[in-house]
Design goal:
311 residues, mainly alpha, three-stranded mixed sheet, two-stranded parallel ribbon, 14 helices, 5% strand
Length: 311
C-alpha cells in the first residue's frame, strides 16, 4: 500500500517531488521547474508574502535545493541584513499593548520578549539546510535564545496577559536551533518541543480539545503557519516521534490517507506570476478532499516511515 504510493512519487516528472520522496538527486532539483520558478527575479521586500527572498530560501530548502550554491548568496545577504538589523538588538520595555506599537525594537512585557521569532528561526533553518550558514547565523541563534519564553517557546503577542508560547512562533525557531546544532541551541530546541508535546501536537492541555481547526488540516507549504504534519515533521527532525505524546497526531495523519496519498485540505497561497500579497511563484498542487497532493504525501510518508508505521 504505502510502497506503491512512494513508488509513484519517485516516478514523478518533477525532480523536486522525486527527491522529497527519497528517489531523486539534489543536483536534479537545481534544474527543476519548481526551483526555476522560485528564483524568478523580483523587486519585492525580503518578507513579501510569499515571493520575497525569505520565503524563496525557505522553499528551496524544503524541496532539496543543493547546498552551498554561490548563486544564492545575494538572497542570503538580503535575508541576514534584514533579520539582524539594528532594531532586533534594541529592547523596549512597555506595559500596554498600545505602547508596544509606538516603538521600534523588540517589545518586552512582564519579562517576556514579544518577538516574531519565526522570522529569524526560519532563516536560520533555511540557511543551514542550504549550506549557506556563516558566523552571522550564530547571531540569529543568539537572538532566539535571548527571546525564549520560560515554557520553552516564543510568542509575539503584545497582550500583557499572554503567558503561553505560540505554536506558530515556536515551530520554526525550534527547527532552526536544533539544526544549528550547538549544545545550547539543541537544549533550547528540546525545551521548545515540550510546547507541542504537552499538547499532543494539537490539543489543549486543559481539556484535550483541538486548539484550532486549521491544526487538523494538511497544507503545503506551511510558511509560518502550523498543522499536525508540520509538528510531526519537526518532531522527526528532533528524533522525538517515539514519544507517546505524538501518537494521537500520528493516528490522525494516518486516518487522513486517501487512495494514492494524502490531500492538501487548505492552502495559504495563490499560484501566480503576478507580484501580489500571498501570491507564490509555484503551484504546489492545490487543494482537494478527494485527490492527494504530492508534496503533502511525500512529507506524510517520511514522517510515518520515521515513526515505524509503514509496516
Amino acid at each position: 500500500m504505502y510502497e506503491s504510493i512512494a513508488e509513484e512519487l519517485q516516478a514523478s516528472p518533477d525532480p523536486a517531488v522525486r527527491w522529497k520522496a527519497g528517489g531523486g538527486s539534489r543536483a536534479e532539483v537545481r534544474e527543476s521547474p519548481v526551483a526555476r520558478r522560485l528564483l524568478t527575479p523580483a523587486d519585492v521586500g525580503v518578507y513579501a508574502k510569499w515571493q520575497g527572498a525569505h520565503w524563496v530560501l525557505g522553499a528551496l530548502a524544503e524541496i532539496g535545493y543543493p547546498p552551498g550554491e554561490v548563486a544564492l548568496h545575494p538572497l542570503r545577504e538580503r535575508v541576514l541584513a534584514t533579520w539582524l538589523g539594528e532594531s532586533y538588538h534594541r529592547e523596549v520595555e512597555v506595559a500596554t499593548k498600545s505602547a508596544a506599537y509606538r516603538h521600534r525594537g523588540v517589545v518586552v512585557m512582564r519579562g517576556r520578549h514579544r518577538a516574531h521569532a519565526s522570522q529569524q528561526g526560519y532563516a536560520l533553518w533555511a540557511l543551514t539546510t542550504l549550506g549557506l550558514a556563516d558566523e552571522r547565523c550564530d547571531q540569529l541563534a543568539d537572538l532566539l535564545l535571548r527571546w525564549q519564553w520560560p515554557d520553552g517557546g516564543w510568542n509575539c503577542d503584545v497582550d500583557p496577559a499572554a503567558d503561553t508560547s505560540s505554536f506558530m512562533e515556536t515551530l520554526l525557531p525550534m527547527r532552526g536551533l536544533w539544526l544549528h546544532g550547538t549544545p545550547r541551541a539543541r537544549e533550547a530546541a528540546r525545551a521548545a518541543a515540550e510546547v507541542f508535546l504537552t499538547r499532543r501536537l494539537a490539543y489543549r492541555a486543559s481539556d484535550g480539545t483541538l486548539i484550532r481547526a486549521e491544526f487538523a488540516k494538511l497544507h503545503f507549504p506551511l510558511y509560518w503557519h502550523y498543522d499536525i504534519l508540520g509538528g510531526l515533521k519537526a518532531m522527526m527532525e528532533l528524533g522525538l516521534l517515539g514519544d507517546p505524546r505524538c501518537a494521537d497526531a500520528l493516528d490522525l495523519l494516518e486516518s487522513m490517507r486517501l487512495p494514492g496519498g494524502w490531500p492538501a485540505h487548505a492552502r495559504y497561497y495563490r499560484a501566480s506570476a503576478e507580484i501580489e500579497l500571498h501570491h507564490d511563484w509555484v503551484d504546489w498542487g492545490g487543494t482537494s478532499t478527494r485527490r492527494p497532493n504530492p508534496w503533502v504525501t511525500a512529507e506524510a510518508l517520511a514522517v510515518l516511515r520515521a515513526a515505524g508505521r509503514l509496516g
